[in-house]
Fold:
Amino acid sequence: MALKNDIQQKVSLGEKVGYSLGDAAANLVFQMMVIFQLKFYTDVFGLDGAVAGSVLLIASLSAIVVDPLIGLMADRTNTRWGKFRPWLLWTAIPFCIFYVLAFYNPGIEEKGMVATYATISYLLLMTVYSFNNVPYTSLGGVMTSDIKERTNITTIRFVAVIIAQFFVQGLTLPLVDHFGNNGENLQHGWVCTIGIFSVIAFIFFMIAFKVSRERIQPPPTQVMSVKEDVKQTVSNVPWNIMFVLTFSIFVTLAMWGSAMNFYFQYNIDQKSLYDFLHFFNLLDDPAEAYSVGFSVFNMVSAIVQFVGVIFLSQYLANKYGKKKTFIVCLFLTTIFTGMFYIPSPTDVSLVFVLNILKSLAYAPTIPLLWAMIADVADHIEYESHRRATGFCFSGIVMALKVGLGTGGAIAGIIISAFGYVSGNVSVQNESAMEGIRLVSSLLPAILFGVGVVALYFYPITKEYNEGMQAELASRRRQANQTDESY
Structure:
């Protein structure tokens, strides 16, 4: 007998917050990948930028095979905890172990072996990330079918994500300096910092597993079929649009995030950065201008995004619909990203102003992406009378991971082609700085623009979604009534 759906499908605040901690945990890892992984490989492991970028790309390409398989496995998992929840429990410990290993060199010195170790350790981390994150994101798609509740869940989830982002992007370099004896032992500083984040991530995963619940079940008459799950998903127009959108966004985020780390160290005049921070009583030691300046830059971004997610995302989505809100906000993000090409090395204040504008424009889109993917899972069920939530989400997570690796690879290859010298040197040549400037502004802006174009063709408007959800709710009520008659 099929499990009954909770037709009301209201979710308590405690469950929403508990569920959100799962993504906070994942972002203790994800934010490190986006912002610090490439620079860690070039400056701590000593890899050439192109080699470091290739490591990121090779590992991320594994998602093309791994993620769809995990989605299919998750859809076919049946335990007393549900289909998706138990994966949080099963993957928590290996996730944390591989996280540490990806930032640890066990004493290897030969560059070819270092690159091999980096590839294997990062591949293991990306794989366990999929085993954890595909079911986790799928879980968010089956907690409720209520449109407003779903948007609220993703809003709270990404408030937790931004808090994690705030701490990772803001505290990583100071913690590395602290544990690494002010730069004398960077490897030790990184391992200690990652170790702290890993313990916190494990605790958060356990809480998310404990409190979350699955309320939407596949139609009771559905016969499990890999062929049909794949066919109905990959032929779905909204799913393909979300795939392109996700890929373009995460290529951009990885490229821009990686590049801004280099940008702050080499393209911004360090004396001007020190004067700017000292004016606000944020810094007394000129030698710490880069680490403190980049941390403050990221923390400001996180605070602005926090405000935008809380006060704008759900309000705009409920009033104008997810599609319209996403298009306008991503278009503005595209403009402000491209404008990072304008500031001179001494124009620190303009860099921070652009950061605030970009972060505020982008903030409303952060939770909407995943709420829209949940709508796509519903759309597949609406059209085909089949539900394959895990496979639907796995394809999008695959686009995320391949985009993440591609963005990091593009950044590494471009700065290397422009003459970047790895090994944490104090000065780069003009050509290298121009390469860093391009991957910090114009190139990511172009890719954000691709996402705007893709969204234009997304067919699930606010009105369409309301009608679709009403029809699906009617089907589920009928299924429950039929189930109760036995």
